[in-house]
Structures are given as structure tokens and as C-alpha cells.
Design a protein that fits this description.
The complex is a heterodimer of chains A (368) and B (713). Chain A has 368 residues and is an alpha+beta fold. Helix content of chain A is 54%, strand content 7%. In chain B, the strands form two sheets. In chain B, strands 3-2-1-4-5 form a five-stranded antiparallel β-sheet. Chain B has a three-stranded antiparallel β-sheet with strand order 6-7-8. Classes of the chains: A alpha+beta (368), B mainly alpha (713). Bound molecules: fe (ii) ion (2 copies).
């Protein structure tokens, strides 16, 4: 079984290298070569090598492979995404067949072909889309958004440094957002106005999530990624709930300590990083959403030439937009166009110009 | 200072110094006014010690057991008369413990000293407490002993007074006679939570009466004119809960929920003071203990929670305004305040917007989109995730639990990193662990992780990945070798022993070479391996490193049946200049086996071994029987040419002048070879040959001679 694991590890590493670099990269060649020689040994032992996927388990030569680690679970994920349910490899396989197979797995939208010595079984994956009754005769979606906000709030209420949130709840919520955006309900209808100060946390989270999914959608980013993007955006400010109170308040008084709030990306990231089953985008966005496109911003870090992930760049735009659109006592309410104008013209280097242009155009289109 | 004193921690020590000074000033208070220099001096010193102390912890409590002062679990030196005097003076006025809190002023300390000197030692404890309360000391808390509330069995009272720490007596009284304990409010709140819970844990659930729970809880939460319920109290209450054994914890949690449900005002006030996360933790534990929380209390909590958090205001920070958590340049923020619509919606913006619409959405399906999508592949996300984890491991916001789990995440990711050839990130992990270790941050966790990274399973995996992918990342590999040093030798040796690819063998040897002499012992071990290729690889590697050690093991390898092994061994020995190698070489040259002789000739030439010139010339002088015999002499001529010993020349001469009728072609080739290999001989010895060669009919010989002649003229 050890050899089997080693084979999976190295095979997946070659797929990974193929995705990260290119299929011509030297590492891919080395790793595929190495996995080929392990496969050779395996085939000499048993004549054939069979991988079956049941749920998220890998069954190799009729034995379930336990503790498959990152590599195993990535393999399962990849194969399922391609609708592959089994792979049979028989003796006589050549290195070039294996190379082609690796390249096929690594290519996003390509279904692997069968080769003389690699047979591939495909199942039809029925994508069960979440549906929700969101049709409204008079175009008033306020009750729907209120319900979703309530859900966000419930999810958030369970957040504490001692307890992990229920990822599935948040995921379900994000699926609702996606469905609403897909139904092309005007984006600004989905966003909720802040009704009271106490609501601002949840409405902000919801709004940023919705706006970020909206951006991703207008950019044409694959459907597969939308739910991770929405989830990461939904949780971007979660660190605010986790800053120890002594860091938040000035000694003695109850005034806000700015250093305290500026720690929320760290608290958020470290909290989200530890949650199993949550997309890694979530801690990434929590960490990066206050970094700027020009590399400034907070939190301070020591990584040279660091650039935000595209998802954090989008979240930063949604974040800024929603914060400025909020009514606050000492300021007048801004029109959407004013907010956009401010975002576009006032602070160069804050946003990715490509993304901010797309955002402005899309919001305008949605408004018109 | 005695031993006992040396062992006590810094904070207790600072307190003990402060007490010495306090005792001096306590005496002085009676004599001098506050402004008097000697008064000022001791008070100042006491105050300074306490100030230093507050940098270590926000407050310190010391207990008084008759003539002994107890700080945390330490007793200050019992025999020191100063402590004794101070303790007794407090004991006389029924003080069980004193807490100094951060924020204490010099003046307050002076006033407290005055209080200690008031003539109140004849008064009962209730009166003393009143006097204390009249003076208000915001940063000094005092717990008084109320012996009346303890109803110990008479015979033990006197003896145990000194033995049983006071808190214990207090708690005992509380449990056994809850109704006798009148005013328990302050006392409960002053018992350090860990002490309180430890003491309570000694009792079983059945021993504690229902009302005791409620009284303790009310005591924790109720505000009195002297003090209000604060976040700090809350924290203490939770600390107290969390240290209780499960059955007691459940009882106390239920009691607190009951108290909250019954007293809406209290609940309102207490919950408003509590940090959000504490409320949630509180609810979580209640749910865990299966305690039902009444709906109206739930409603109250949900209504309170967001509002205590939603009002993160806007604060000014350097050149920017922080709006919630978003930084906005001051001038933009100004714009928000002005009723200045035009300025915001500038013409420029209108034009920009128009521009944006010229582009069609379909334009997006370009390289930019491919780039965007590329960012979402799992590998890149993982890579970034790892970078962030490493960054977090450096930050000071982590608790021990978080640090441990992040370290574990990195540990799980390591194999993945290695197989992707991301050796740089792996080096970063090691660096951070080592730095944190040096800083004594979570030493146990670091040690644990480092132990894993030094385990043999891991090192085998590491070297295995280096073997496959290391050639592309030589700089990072060098860093890894630098870090592990000779620990990696056996693993590299394992890899080398079985490696088929010459390119990878070369790479592995390059790595092993870094370790110099350190690898000899391990190499010698490997030389005993039965497999010929292992022997050969080790010999090659030894030769590469320039190791000079010669052992019998290597010598025997010279006679190994596999010529690849023997050749490698010979090469190694010749490199070291060992005499044995020359003997072996002679043996080779005298051998009956053609292959051996051939090897010997090549080695003699490439190492320019003068000692075997005799053997080589003998080979030249051998009677030729066939054409191939002449052919065999060509490498010998070359080897001798490398050595360039003048003794050889007469033999060469003989070969040149000898008549041969058979094999003319090959003989001519041999002669040409002689001329081609003359350049290492001393000029004097070959002058005649050159003169003759210049006039030779053979063109090759002529050209060679001409160029040699030119060289020497
Ligand atoms: Fe934020
Ligand atoms: Fe935000």
C-alpha cells in the first residue's frame, strides 16, 4: 500500500506541476518519469492498477486508501470535477501515455481520453443547483434579502475563538446569492440597506459577498469558483469579531484603538485557516482584503513582491463600495455614481484598474 | 538573600522589595509628613517596584496568614523580620489579602499606608471594613477575615488557623454555612478564580447547596456602590467557570442563566459589559452542558450582541480616515462631508464611464481572463495559503492553540511542497520554527515540529524529493544541506547507491561533496555493500571529494571481479598517491588479461605514474605476433608520452627504426603516434628524433617534427 500511496503522491505532484508551470516544465518530466517507474513496479506485482472513486474515497485495487492526504483528496476532487469515476491501467503502458494522461487531468476543461493502456470510466454528474423561491411579482426582494441577512447573522453569531463555524451553512447561503445573481435580479436590489447599527456587520458581509460574486460573474470566471469566491467575501471581516477586547479599546476608556481594528485581517486569517473543509481562499481574502493593489495597506508582512490574489482585489472593491454607500450620521448619503466616481478618481493604486473599470461598467449596466 | 528568595519569580520578588519599602514608610508615616525626604524616598521606591511589577502583570494579590506573606504559591521568607512585622500589622486589622492594581498612584499608596496605621486594631472586622470603605482606594482591594462566618469544629480552630490558607477557610465556610456568610460580594470577586475553582472542585456536587451557587453568581455580577460589574469581573467569572469540574460547571452555568432570566436589569447591565466573544463562549458552554436558555434571554443577547459591535466608529489615522476598517485619504473623506456633488461627479468621470462602455464584455475573453482563471487553480491558492500561514506564524496575535494548529497545517503541507519542488518555502518553515524557538515562543510546539523535520522518515522523503527535483533548485538545495549538515549524508548515500541515472548521480555527488571528510565513515560502511554499483558509486564519490583515507576495504576493491569497481578503486588510490596503488598498477600491467593491462596503461598515462615506466616500455618491447599486438602498443605510446620520461626515448627509437614487412599500415600509424606524443619529453632527449622526422617521407611525422622544431628554436 505504501508504494500505491507513493504513486498517487508523485502522480498528483506531476499534475500539480503541470498546472503551476507548464506541461513542458522539467519538474513535470521528472515527476512523471518517477511515477512511471513506480507504476511499472506496481504493474509487475499485480498486472493491473485500478482506481475507483466512491464519494470522496479512493479505492485502489479494491482496497480503500485511507489517510490519503492533500494529494489524494486533490486527486479525488479533480477526477470528480471531470466526471471520472474509475481509471484502469494495464501492463504495457508507455511513458508517453502517462504523460498525456497527466496533461489531460491538468487541463481544466478537457475530458481525458482513453488510451490503449489507460481506460477511463465517466459518470454523468448531475449538478444539483440550489433553488429557492425568489420570484417576486412586484420586484420587491426585500423579504428575501432580509431572510438571507438573518441567515448570515445566525451564522456569524456562532463565531467565537473557541468554536468553528458551520461551513455548510455559509456555503448554502452563498449558493442562494449565486442563484439570485444568476436570475439577474438587479444587483442593487439584492444588496440590503443597513437598517440599524446593529445590523451593519451582517448586511456588510452579505453585500460584499453578493458584490464580489457579481464581479466574478461579469468577468466570466468559471462557475466552479463562484461559491468559494462568495464564501471568502462573506467571511472577509470575521476577524473583527475575534480581536481580543483589550486590543480594541483604549486603556480605561471605550474608544476604538485603531491598531486593534487593523489586526482583524490577522485574526480573521488565523481563524479561517484552521477550519477544515473551508476553501483556502477564505483565509487568503481575510488576510489580504486591506492590502492595496500597489502593495501598500495593511497588515504589514514580510513577503517580498507580494500581490493580492484576484479574489482579494475584487473583495476590496466590494468592501470599499459598500462602506461608502452606507449612511452614517455625520455624513450625507452618497449616490451610487458618486461612490463609483470616488473609487475611480480619488485614490490611485488602491485598486486593480482592470477590475475597477469592470466594476464600474457592470454597476452602470445594472443600473440602466 | 536566601535560597527560598532566589527561587521565587520576578513579580513576587518585586513585590517583596516593595513590601520592605512599604514597611519602612509605614513606620515613617507615623513620624514624618508626606513631603519629608525620607518619607518620599521609601514611598517612591515602593512605588517604583510596584510600577515595574505592573509591567509584568496588571495586578498582584498577596495573602496574609498571621505572620507570613503569601504571593501566588510562594511564601516570602518566614524568618525575615520585616515581612513578619508587616504581615502581623495587617493581620491585626483582620486583613486576609491585599491586591494592588495597575493605575495605583503614589498618593493612593501613601493614603493606604496611613490607613494601615490608623488605630483600629481593637475594632471588630465589620468596623475595620467600614473604615476601609470610607477611604476610597480605587486600585487597592482588601479582603477581610470574618472569623465569625467560619464554624469549624472547636478543637481544630486554633491549629488550623495558621495551617489552612485563608481562602480555603473562607470557601469552606461558604459551602458549609451559606446562610451565615452575610456579605460575600467583595470576597468572592477577590478570590483568584483558579484558587476559587480549585477549592470548590474538592467538594462534590451533592455537598454544595443550591443557594450557594446562586449566591456566588450574584456576588460575581451584582454591582455595589463601591464597585460596578466590569468586563474584568466577567473574565474572572468565566475563568472560574472554565476551571470547574463538569458537574459544578453545569450547576454554576445554570445558576447564572437563572440569575440572568430573573433579573432583567442585571442581565442587561452584565451582558452589555461583556465582550462579544465572551457572550458567545458563555452561550456555547451552556448549550454544551444542555442547559436551556429561556427565549427572552436569547432575545436579549441577540439584541445586545450586534450593537456592541456595530458601532466601530471612524477614527483618524495618519493621513487617512478609517471608515469602519477601510482607509480613505483625508481629502476624499472631506469630500464626503461637503455638500459638493459636482466635485465628485466630475466631467472626467463622466468621460471615463463613456469610455468603459466602448469596451464590450466579450473583449474580456482574452488573455486577461485566462490569467484571472489561472489564479483559481488549487495549486496556486495552496501556495499563497502557505505563504500566509508562514506570515501568521511570525505574528504575535496567535494563541498557543492557534500556533499549534497552524504549525500542524504546515506540517501536513510539507510533503506537497516538496513534491512541487517548492524547497524555498520549506526552508522558510524551518527558519520560522528556528527563530521562534530562539525567541522562546511556544518552545514545546517548535521542538515537536523540528523533531518531525529531523526524523528519519522525513529526511528520507526530503532527499527522495531532492533526488527527483533538486536539480532545478540548486540554490535552495544548498540551503537545505547547509541547515541539516551531515545529518543528510546517509540519506543521500542511500539515494546515490541505487540511482541509475548518471545525471542524478552527478547531482547527488555534488551534494555529498559539500560535506567533505564528514562523509567518509558513512562511505566506508557502504563500501561493504555486496552490490557492485554501490561500491563503484561510493568509490567515485570518495575520489570526487578528494578524501585521502586509504583502507583495506578500498584496496580489496582493486581486485574486485567487476572491472568497473576495480577501476574506480584504482583511480581513487592513485589520486591519493598511495604506494599500494603503484604496486596494484604493476600487477595490472603484468597481468595476463588483456582488459586489465589496457586499464593499467590508461591509468598509468592519465595519472602520469613514472614508477611504472619500466613495465610500460616492456610492453612496447614485446614481440609482436599479430597486427593487433601493434595496435595495442599505441595506447602504451600515448601513456608514455604523458609521462615523458627520457629513458623511454631509446625504446621509441628502436620502434621507429625497426624494419617490418608485415603490417606496414599499422606500423606506420604507431610511428606517427610516437611523433604525436613527443611534446612532454625533454628536448635534449628527442632532438635526434626531430632532426630525422623533419626529413621523413611521412607527412604526419614531418609536420609534427616541424612544429616541435619551431617550438624549441
Ligand atoms: Fe476589513
Ligand atoms: Fe469589510
Amino acid at each position: 500500500m505504501e508504494t500505491v500511496k507513493e504513486f498517487i503522491v508523485i502522480l498528483m505532484s506531476s499534475v500539480s506541476s503541470c498546472m503551476l508551470y507548464s506541461k513542458k516544465h522539467a519538474s513535470v518530466g521528472e515527476l512523471t518519469g518517477k511515477s512511471f517507474s513506480i507504476l511499472d513496479t506496481l504493474l509487475k506485482q499485480s498486472g493491473r492498477f485500478e482506481i475507483v472513486i466512491v464519494e470522496d474515497e479512493l479505492i485502489v485495487n479494491k482496497n480503500p486508501l485511507r489517510d490519503i492526504g492533500t494529494h489524494g483528496s486533490t486527486l479525488v476532487k479533480r477526477l470528480r470535477r471531470k466526471g471520472i469515476s474509475r481509471i484502469d491501467i494495464v501492463q504495457g503502458i508507455t511513458l508517453s501515455e502517462l504523460r498525456q494522461f497527466v496533461a489531460d487531468i491538468a487541463t481544466a476543461d478537457k475530458k481525458p481520453l482513453s488510451y490503449p493502456h489507460i481506460k477511463i470510466g465517466v459518470v454523468d454528474i448531475a449538478i444539483d443547483r440550489m433553488t429557492m423561491n425568489i420570484d417576486s411579482a412586484d420586484g420587491d426582494f426585500s423579504s428575501v434579502t432580509a431572510e438571507l441577512n438573518q441567515k448570515t447573522r445566525e451564522g456569524y453569531l456562532r463565531v467565537s475563538p473557541f468554536k468553528k463555524p458551520n461551513v455548510a451553512d455559509f456555503q448554502e447561503l452563498v449558493m442562494h446569492f449565486i442563484v439570485m445573481i444568476q436570475k439577474e435580479i438587479g444587483i442593487l436590489n439584492i444588496m440590503s440597506p443597513v437598517k440599524s447599527a446593529g445590523d451593519s456587520y451582517y448586511t456588510h458581509a452579505t453585500n460584499v459577498s453578493v458584490l464580489t460574486i457579481f464581479q466574478a460573474k461579469t468577468l466570466g470566471i468559471q462557475e466552479d469558483s463562484l461559491s468559494d469566491i462568495g464564501l471568502a467575501a462573506l467571511l472577509h471581516d470575521i476577524g473583527k469579531l475575534l480581536i481580543p477586547t483589550d486590543q480594541m479599546k483604549q486603556e480605561g476608556g471605550y474608544e476604538l484603538k485603531e491598531e486593534g481594528i487593523m489586526l482583524h485581517p490577522l485574526y480573521g486569517a488565523q481563524y479561517l485557516a484552521r477550519i477544515d473543509g473551508l476553501t483556502c481562499l477564505a483565509p487568503i481574502v481575510a488576510f489580504e482584503h486591506h492590502l492595496r493593489y500597489d502593495g501598500k495597506g495593511y497588515p504589514h508582512h514580510a513577503i517580498p513582491n507580494y500581490r493580492q490574489h484576484i479574489c482579494s482585489q475584487m473583495t476590496a472593491i466590494s468592501d470599499y463600495f459598500d462602506i461608502l454607500r452606507n449612511t452614517r450620521p455625520e455624513m450625507r448619503a452618497l449616490e451610487v455614481k458618486e461612490v463609483l466616481s470616488l473609487m475611480k478618481t480619488k485614490d490611485e493604486g488602491l485598486f486593480n484598474p482592470f477590475l475597477i473599470n469592470n466594476f464600474i461598467r457592470s454597476i452602470h449596466l445594472a443600473l440602466s | 538573600m536566601n535560597d527560598n528568595n532566589k527561587k521565587i519569580p520576578l513579580d513576587a520578588k518585586l513585590l517583596s522589595y516593595a513590601i520592605i519599602e512599604l514597611n519602612i514608610s509605614r513606620r515613617n508615616v507615623a513620624i514624618y509628613p508626606q513631603e519629608h525626604p525620607s518619607m518620599e524616598r521609601s514611598l517612591m521606591r515602593a512605588f517604583d517596584f510596584l510600577k515595574q511589577l505592573f509591567q509584568l502583570r496588571p495586578e498582584i494579590t498577596f495573602g496574609i496568614a498571621k505572620d507570613t506573606i503569601i504571593v501566588d504559591e510562594y511564601q516570602l521568607d518566614k524568618k525575615n523580620p520585616v515581612y513578619q512585622e508587616f504581615a502581623l500589622s495587617l493581620n491585626k486589622i483582620h486583613i486576609a489579602s491585599v491586591t494592588f492594581k495597575n493605575g495605583l498612584t503614589k498618593d493612593e499608596l501613601y493614603q493606604f499606608n496611613c490607613f494601615l496605621l490608623e488605630k483600629i486594631d481593637h475594632l471588630p472586622v465589620t468596623k475595620v471594613r467600614e473604615v476601609f470603605k470610607k477611604n476610597s482606594f480605587p486600585h487597592v482591594a482588601v479582603v477581610f477575615i470574618d472569623y465569625g462566618t467560619f464554624s469549624f469544629k472547636t478543637s481544630t480552630t486554633d491549629q488550623t488557623t495558621r495551617e489552612i490558607p485563608l481562602w480555603e477557610k473562607y470557601v469552606y465556610g461558604l459551602i458549609k454555612n451559606p446562610l451565615q456568610t452575610e456579605d460575600i460580594t467583595d470576597a468572592v470577586r477577590d478570590i483568584p478564580p483558579e484558587t476559587f475553582s480549585n477549592l470548590l472542585n474538592k467538594f462534590s456536587d451533592a455537598e454544595i447547596k443550591e443557594e450557594t451557587y446562586d449566591r456566588v453568581i450574584t456576588a460575581y455580577m451584582r454591582s455595589s456602590p463601591q464597585r460596578t460589574f466590569s468586563g474584568q469581573d466577567c473574565k474572572r467569572m468565566f475563568e472560574f467557570f472554565n476551571r470547574l469540574k463538569p458537574d459544578l460547571k453545569k450547576k454554576f452555568l445554570s445558576s447564572s442563566i437563572r440569575t440572568f432570566s430573573q433579573d432583567k436589569n442585571l442581565a442587561n447591565q452584565a451582558l452589555a459589559e461583556m465582550p462579544f466573544k465572551d457572550i458567545i463562549a458563555f452561550l456555547d458552554s451552556a448549550i454544551e452542558q444542555r442547559i436551556t436558555v429561556p427565549q427572552h434571554l436569547m432575545d436579549l443577547i441577540t439584541s445586545l450582541v450586534p450593537s456592541s459591535h456595530g458601532n466601530i466608529g471612524d477614527v483618524l489615522l495618519h493621513e487617512t480616515v478609517v471608515l469602519d476598517d477601510v482607509l480613505i485619504p483625508t481629502d476624499s473623506a472631506e469630500l464626503l462631508k461637503k455638500k459638493n456633488f459636482e466635485k465628485l461627479l466630475s466631467d472626467k468621470y463622466q468621460q471615463d464611464i463613456q469610455q468603459l462602455f466602448v469596451l464590450h464584455t466579450s473583449d474580456l475573453k482574452t488573455s486577461q481572463l485566462i490569467e484571472l482563471e489561472h489564479e483559481f487553480i488549487d495549486e496556486l491558492i495552496d501556495q499563497r495559503f502557505n505563504q500566509i500561514i508562514l506570515e501568521l506564524l511570525r505574528s504575535e496575535t496567535l494563541s498557543e492553540i492557534e500556533y499549534r494548529s497552524l504549525v500542524n497545517i504546515m506540517r501536513q503541507q510539507t510533503e506537497h511542497l516538496l513534491w512541487l519542488g517548492q524547497f524555498g518555502q520549506f526552508v522558510e518553515i524551518l527558519k520560522i520554527l528556528e527563530i521562534n524557538q530562539a525567541l522562546h515562543r511556544f518552545p514545546d510546539i517548535n521542538a515537536d515540529a523540528l523533531q518531525y523535520y529531523h526524523s528519519s522518515d522525513f529526511l528520507a522523503l526530503l532527499v527522495n524529493s531532492l533526488r527527483v527535483l533538486g536539480r532545478q533548485k540548486r540554490r535552495e538545495v544548498a540551503m537545505i544541506c547547509e541547515y541539516y549538515r551531515h545529518k543528510l549524508i546517509p540519506y543521500f548515500m542511500d539515494a546515490l547507491a541505487e540511482e541509475d541515472s548518471q545525471v542524478i548521480r552527478r547531482f547527488l555527488m555534488d551534494q555529498l561533496k559539500r560535506f567533505g571528510d564528514k562523509l567518509i565513515p558513512e562511505a566506508m560502511k557502504r563500501l561493504a555493500d555486496e552490490r557492485w554499483f554501490v561500491k563503484r558509486n561510493v568509490l567515485y564519490m570518495l575520489a570526487e571529494t578528494g578524501a585521502k583515507e586509504v583502507t583495506d576495504q578500498i584496496k580489496t576493491c582493486c581486485r574486485h571481479e567487476n572491472p568497473k569497481v576495480s577501476l574506480a578503486a584504482m583511480k581513487y588510490l592513485l589520486n591519493t598517491g598511495d604506494n599500494y596503488a603503484i604496486e596494484m598498477l604493476r600487477e595490472f600491467l603484468d597481468s595476463k588479461e588483456k582488459e586489465k593491462i589496457h586499464q593499467g596503461v590508461l591509468l598509468a598515462g592519465s595519472f602520469r605514474i613514472k614508477e611504472v615506466v619500466g613495465e610500460l616500455t616492456a610492453l612496447l618491447q614485446k614481440q609482436e605476433i599479430s597486427g593487433s599486438d601493434i595496435q595495442d602498443k599505441i595506447p602504451v605510446v600515448r601513456a608514455l608520452g604523458e609521462i615523458g620520461d627520457p629513458q623511454t626515448v631509446k625504446v621509441l627509437q628502436a620502434l621507429l627504426t625497426g624494419k617490418s614487412i608485415l603490417y606496414r599500415g599499422i606500423t606506420e600509424q604507431l610511428r606517427e603516434e610516437i611523433y604525436k606524443t613527443l611534446k612532454n619529453y625533454p628536448y635534449e632527449s628527442i632532438r635526434n628524433l626531430i632532426e630525422e622526422g623533419v626529413n621523413s617521407k611521412n607527412e604526419v611525422i614531418r609536420t609534427e617534427s616541424d612544429s616541435l622544431k619551431r617550438k624549441y628554436s
